Amino acid sequence: EHQSSEGPIVLPQAASGLPELYGKSFGIFPTDMRLRRHMQGVVSSSAFEIVVTVLITLSTLQLSVDAPGLDSESQLAQLLRKLNIAFSVVFSLESALKMFVYGVALNKDAYLRSIWNMIDLFVVGI
Fold this sequence. Notes:
The chain is mainly alpha-helical. The chain has four helices and two strands. The longest helix is centred in the last third of the chain and has 28 residues, at 75-102.
């Protein structure tokens, strides 16, 4: 949004360099909602993708350390449980944020219209 002598000028979506958003997310949040457009920039950024990829790698390492024979009362087991909860929360927030930006299923570019996002949501839900 820029200022002119007549007041604010709202730039079209294309001026932001981001793809057009379609439909209301969750049936209530319009495409021109400032927070939704801002979060689109966040989830579309390479920095966001790098952070998510690093977290996936760390989560995978955490899962590889866990073993059935591990003493459930050990400090390592307790740490792994806490990390599992933290990763679950972060990945759930990532999914929810992308659904907020792109919509869940009905919009043209909705979150669940990508097979990768379906797999992602399934894994997070387990």
